[in-house]
Structures are given as structure tokens and as C-alpha cells.
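tmp note - D-aminoacyl-tRNA deacylase
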Amino acid sequence: MKAIVQRVAQASVTVGGEQISSIGRGLCVLLGISLEDTQRELEHMVRKILNLRVFEDESGKHWSKSVMDKQYEVLCVSQFTLQCILKGNKPDYHMAMPTEQAESFYNNFLEQLRKAYKPELIKDGKFGAYMQVHIQNDGPVTIELESPAAAVDPKQVSKPERPSARNGCSGYAFTSEVYICLYVAQICESIALSEGSIPVMKQHSFLWA
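out:
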């Protein structure tokens, strides 16, 4: 699932020359649903959108408040083209969820947003319709979200192994593959020296576990 979230001063949706939905200050969310999306992705995206801190606080400090903190509105528009894969210069949409399935999924997404926030502050376009979406971007601020988030959290990545005496070489932490390569190289050097095929050189000693 992909979403383009824009902080807006105002936004509206027009279908067939008639405005069907509009909001004042808040978020406009363009949502693209993929074939692989499940309830897990849906819930993740709902949480991210509602808690995304893109507004200022009372003192004017930026990136401090979410749409819920400010009690602003959210306008959602289904946009399958976010699941586009380019084949040369031609867009391909085979990764987008089929229309019938996607409509049910999208309605569930709206329902979860309304349950988590205030129903009257969640607005919608018209699923499957040809729409004109008028967005007055505030900033501009545009953020791309993808669900699920990256599997690896940078904060949870283990730190590199600190050099130790067992490495036999200051400043580096060797893997088992490196140890094997060094061991083979040392054997080859010893054989060559014994046969007198190369000049005697200072040998490097390594401590093996």
C-alpha cells in the first residue's frame, strides 16, 4: 500500500462538474492499494496517516503536531496509479488490486480512519470515478508513505563488532570467510618460501581461534 500525503490549506474533489467533497486545512491522502495488501498493511497506514507530525504547535514549532492533535480534516482519494510499474515508457498496473476487491478494501480503510479519529472529519472522493482533485498544498509539504514500513529499523541495527585481540589485527573485525582466506594465503606463502620460489618476506602472524 502506498500513500501520498499532502499538507493542505484546502482541497476538494469534483466529479462531472459537481463538487462532491471538500476540506479546509488538513491532509489530502492519495492511496494506492496493491495485490498483496492485507489488514495488517491497512492498520499500519491508518496509524501513520493520523499520527504523522506535519503541523506546527501553538508556539510555531514545526513538525510537532498530527492532524488529530490539530483536529483538522482528512480528504482521501483512491489512486491505483500509485502502483504503477514502468515497462519502458508505458505504465503497467498489474500490481494494483482488482477493482471489485480494491473498493471493499478502500471502504474498510475509510471505516478504520473514522473509528480511529472523528467520522465527520474524514472526507472521501468517489471510488472508480473520473475526478478532478483540487489541492492547495501548504508549504509545500508532501510525504510518501509505504506499508509495511521497512523491515529493518535503523535504531535496531546491531553495531559493528568491536576489534578484539582475537582478530590479531588492530582495527578490523574479521568474518569466518576472511579467516579462511588468510589461512589459505599463509599456507601458500609457506610452501612458496620452502621451495625458494619467492624472496623471503616478513610474514604476518595471525591469531587463530
